[in-house]
Structures are given as C-alpha cells and as structure tokens.
Amino acid sequence: MLDKNGIAKRIAKEVKDGYYVNLGIGIPTLVANFVREDISVEFQSENGVLGMGPFPFEGEEDADIINAGKQTITTLAGASFFDSATSFAMIRGQHVDLTILGAMEVSDKGDIANWKIPGKMVKGMGGAMDLVASAENIIVAMMHTNKAGKSKLLKKCSLPLTGVACVKKIVTNLAVLEITANGFKLLERAPGVSVEDIRKATEGNLIIEGTVPEMQL
C-alpha cells in the first residue's frame, strides 16, 4: 500500500499542463512536490497565494510565506499574493481547474465530509464549502480506512457533510476509484494490494470490471 507521499505522487499524474490547482490541507499539499517538471502548473492556496512551489528544505523556510494550513512553502517565479476576497473570487468564479482535498469520509454518491467531527473543537469550516460548491473537478486524497481499520468510503457519510455529490475521483493508500452513478468504480490497485483487500476495506458499493491494473507511479 501507499504512504502519504505515494498518494500525492499518484494524484500528481492527474495534473495537466496549464492547470490552475487548489491544494487543500494535509496530503494534498504534498502534490506540488511531484508534478512533472516539463509542464506549467499554477498552485493556488485560499489564504491568497498563486504560484506555490514545493515545500522548502530545512533551514530555508520563510515564516511569512505559508499555505492555508499554516505550513511554510516556497513560491515560483512570477508568484503573486493577494487578499482572501480575491482568492475566493477566483474559487467561486470557477477559475480553478482542479481541486485536491483531504477527507474524513466520502460516500459512494460523491458526498464528502471533511470539515468537522461532532464534539471536537474546530476553528471554522475555512474554505472547504466554497471549494466543493464551486469546483467541477474534485479529487480526494485520503486513507482508505481509519485508525480502527473501519472504512472511510461509505454508503452514507456519518459526519456533517461539506458537499453533496461533488467528488469525481479518490486516491487512497489502497486504490484509485472513480465516483459513478452506481458507486465507487475501482480503476487501479496500489502496489502489493489485491482487489479483495480493497473490497474488504470499502463499505460503499464497489464496482469491479475486468482486470484491475496496478498503479504506475
């Protein structure tokens, strides 16, 4: 199975030349480290950055340059900084080609829960709901199961929803799946992971058609 970097590396293959991409907090922030060097991509962070690069090396961090998750980042030549109003105008105006988000749960209808666990203290929902309401292409990066081994790919989300029927594709430590009208369609297996492993780890409706190839990273 994949680690967090492996998930990010696989998602990086979905990023196309000329894309404007929003990276959510968590695993999605790692995607910038693995995008092909021969394509031009603009990474956007909702706190007001366009042109994010990979994470800085230790000792080269600038505490004033951070992403929405308050992690230090690098910026590429031509990067720009702006206020939240401008940033969300870009998001709500559908000027972002691809949104990559983390999630606590996803349903087989494409619903996503990624902003709140009841009873837990949260600072606020942030930009999650704006992102899922405005984006037409959403890929979720997540672990397939929780720490107790229970599936996070469900028939119905148990946590408060961030968005309804909005997720297009999911990349987990076990698989790549596409949301279809009938459920999770299994597209690829992680190295060393069997179809049966994925079936056991998926509560929602899993569609398996023919031979499922192993991911090429």
In short:
The chain is of the alpha/beta class and 217 residues long. It has helices at 4-12, 84-92, 128-134, 195-201; strands spanning 20-23, 42-45, 49-52, 75-81, 98-102, 105-107, 112-113, 138-141, 153-154, 169-171, 175-180, 183-189, 206-207.
Please write out the topology.
Elements: H1 4-12, E1 20-23, E2 42-45, E3 49-52, E4 75-81, H2 84-92, E5 98-102, E6 105-107, E7 112-113, H3 128-134, E8 138-141, E9 153-154, E10 169-171, E11 175-180, E12 183-189, H4 195-201, E13 206-207
Parallel strand pairs: 1-2, 1-5, 5-8, 6-9, 8-10, 12-13
Antiparallel strand pairs: 2-3, 3-4, 6-7, 10-11, 11-12
Overview of this structure, please?
The protein has a 10-stranded mixed beta sheet. The protein is globular. By secondary structure, it is an alpha/beta fold. The protein is built from 4 helices and 13 strands. The model has no long low-confidence stretch (mean pLDDT 92). Helices cover 15% and strands 24% of the residues. The longest helix has 9 residues, at 4-12.
* Structural Rg: 17 Å
User: What is the end-to-end distance?
Assistant: 12 Å
> Could you give the order of the helices and strands?
HEEEEHEEEHEEEEEHE
Main sheet makeup = 10 strands, mixed
- The share of residues in helices is 10-25%
What low-confidence regions span 5 or more consecutive residues with pLDDT below 50?
Answer: none
What is the arithmetic mean of pLDDT? 92
What's the shape? globular
Query: Order of strands across the widest beta sheet?
Result: 4-3-2-1-5-8-10-11-12-13
Query: What is the number of beta strands?
Result: 13
Alpha plus pi helix count: 4
Strand content: 15-25%
Structural class: alpha/beta
